Amino acid sequence: MTPPRQTAFTLHVSVDLHCHVLPYLDDGARDLDDAVAMAWQAQTDGIGAICATPHIRDDHDVRIAELPERLTEVVAAVARSGCRTRILPGGEVSATMIDRLDDRELVAVTLGGAGRWVLLEPAPGPLGDEFDVAVERLDARGFRAVVAHPERHLATDLVPRLQRLAARGVLVQATAAFLTDAGMADGMAALARAGVIHVLGSDSHSSRAGRPVAIAAAVEVLRSLQPTAAHIDWIARTAPEAIARGDELTPPF
Question: Which of 1, 22, 215, 223 has a CA 20 to 30 Å removed from the CA of 39?
Answer without folding.
Answer: 223
